[in-house]
Specification:
By secondary structure, the protein is an alpha/beta fold. The chain is built from 14 helices and twelve strands. 38% of the residues lie in helices and 16% in strands. The structure holds pyridoxal-5'-phosphate (PLP). InterPro entries: Cys/Met-Metab_PyrdxlP-dep_enz (IPR000277), Cys_met_metab_PP (IPR054542), PyrdxlP-dep_Trfase (IPR015424), PyrdxlP-dep_Trfase_major (IPR015421), PyrdxlP-dep_Trfase_small (IPR015422).
Length: 371
């Protein structure tokens, strides 16, 4: 089946009892045992599994072409489950511009438990030089946040596989519509479903999808059900509902992002536009080879510097000055302000999450804000 069809059908089934065409929300925390003490439906207690979560996990696994998925209450909870599933003392290699929330998580919550290096993972020689006997995992995020750097997933996966190291790819910015990391050699995919999967800036969630079920995946499942950072049945329901339109939303987002990037690239006030769909992007060739669309987050720097960047975010009218991404509404933010003192993000940089408004209105809004 094609991805548009999977998005609509893989998370839904007609309810056996009521014949409701859309799967009902099962709020129950507990399920009745049969006389022998077993569970006829396979469900016993909702922390372990719930029908709405199973439906969500099913559609997520199929969208990424994986064997199974595990849904979490946030993207950070999903990421943390991977780190918790590693043996203490394991060394992990992460991108130097890893999503700041996960970078901070490693530095604070896993200090003294795991070893980590933040490096340029797209550089084969640098990557090989950092692999140690206890390296168990390479974390990727491509396109990255907020510099939109691209990592060659196949290249990293080949280096990792040769040394029995697992590769996890944070695919939040790309979504499976633009990039399928498992097909490119990654072992696990991570998502903040708060972003494009939810798509309406009104729910938080995270997910992991595995290429195959194995011992490491069993550990992650244990972290999910014993740790309990699971999404509510309501959140699972809303996610399954939103995912049905994901393929068409992404088409619209990507279309608008490309046009906005081209507009900005030709604007006199703009120093540089960072978007993998532009031929001027330093890794355009890798993006073109591994992506089927270039996502809808872009960053740009202003020639006039930080003060002007902060003025622009205060002058926009259609864009909302806010963090996050992936919703139908366009957002803009001064990224360095949110990332804190150890940020590597330039201070004249603005990050945009391109929404689904008409592109002419978005361009007109930035035109007046930068005018
Ligand atoms: C938002 C985000 C996360 C964290 O997800 P939450 O749902 O906010 O916990 C991780 N990685 C990327 C790339 C993100 O954009």
């Amino acid at each position: 089946m094609k991805i548009e069809t999977i998005a609509i059908h893989a998370g839904n089934h007609v309810d056996e009892t009521s014949k409701a065409a859309i799967q009902p929300i099962v709020m129950a925390t507990t399920f009745e045992r049969n006389p022998e003490g077993g569970y006829d439906s396979g469900y016993s207690y909702s922390r372990a599994a719930n029908p709405n979560r199973s439906a969500l996990e099913n559609v997520l696994a199929q969208l990424e072409g994986g064997a199974e998925a595990a849904a979490f209450s946030s993207g950070n909870a999903a990421g943390m489950s991977v780190f918790q599933a590693l043996e203490p003392g394991t060394h992990i290699i992460c991108p130097d511009d890893m999503y700041h929330g996960l970078r901070n998580q490693l530095k604070t919550l896993f200090k003294g438990i795991l070893e980590f290096d933040f490096i340029d993972v797209n550089h084969a020689e640098i990557l090989k030089a950092h692999i140690k006997p206890n390296t168990g995992l390479i974390w990727l995020e491509t396109p990255s946040n907020p510099l939109l750097k691209i990592t060659d997933i196949k290249m990293v996966a080949a280096i990792a596989a040769a040394q029995n190291i697992k590769v996890v790819c944070d695919n939040t910015f790309a979504t499976p519509l633009c990039q399928r990391p498992l097909a490119l050699g990654a072992d696990l995919v991570m998502h903040s479903t708060t972003k494009y999967f939810g798509g309406h800036s009104d729910l938080m969630g995270g997910a992991l999808i595995t290429k195959e079920t194995n011992e490491f995946w069993e550990k992650i499942r244990n972290v999910q059900t014993m740790g309990g950072a699971i999404p509510s049945p309501m959140d699972c329901y809303y996610l399954v509902r939103s995912i049905k339109t994901l393929p068409y939303r992404i088409k619209g987002h990507v279309h608008n992002a490309q046009l906005l990037a081209e507009y900005l690239e030709n604007h006199d006030s703009v120093e540089e536009v960072l978007y993998p769909g532009l031929q001027s992007h330093p890794q355009y060739a890798i993006a073109k080879a591994q992506m089927t669309g270039y996502g809808a987050v872009l960053s740009f720097t202003l020639k006039a510097g930080e003060a002007e960047a902060k003025r622009v975010v205060n002058r926009v009218e259609i864009f909302t000055q806010a963090t996050s991404l992936g919703g139908v509404e366009s957002l803009i933010e001064h990224r360095a302000s949110i990332e804190g003192p150890d940020t590597k993000t330039p201070f004249n940089l603005l990050r945009v999450s391109v929404g689904l408004e008409h592109i002419d209105d978005l361009i007109a809004d930035l035109e007046q804000a930068m005018g």
